[in-house]
Design brief:
The chain is mostly helical. Helix 3 runs antiparallel to helix 4 and helix 6 runs antiparallel to helix 7. 23% of the residues are buried.
Length: 182
Amino acid sequence: MAHADRTVAGGPGGPGAGLGGGGGARRAMARHALLPLRLFLGVTFVYAGLDKLTDPAFFASGGTGSVGELMRQVRGTSAVPALVDLALRNPAGFGYAIAAGELAVGIGTLVGLFARVAALGGALISLSLWLTVSWSTQPYYYGNDLAYLMAWLPLVLAGAPVLSLDAALAARRSRQGRQLFG
């Protein structure tokens, strides 16, 4: 006899878990709870990276819309002026690093590959932007970088346990381990 939350084929946490009656639907929803956050952050960071990479004005050391001009504007109000000074040494290089980082974080988050590492990268990008660009935003909740930082933290802690390359690779390793030790 199968328990109401389990299927005979799957057992607890197996392929059929969460498909039975009772708490199964609740368990399935809980397992997928971070998926909307992953999709939102992944798409947003891919978009942000591509937006920067396709905007030639962004990589200029000065002028409207450039990363150099932005860094000069926030220098006096930044919580970490040394970080801004570092960016101002090579604004184009800093701009490319941010764009590439956002793209890598977004793709890693969307496909769920090295999901915790990608989420940590997203959190660090958001932290650096909060401490520099949006630090002086008043009241603080008008700045979006702090909210992004907080949004990344559940993914740093949980990773991408479902619908991800990490989960597929873990399942494959588990199957291979069972074959070896049978």
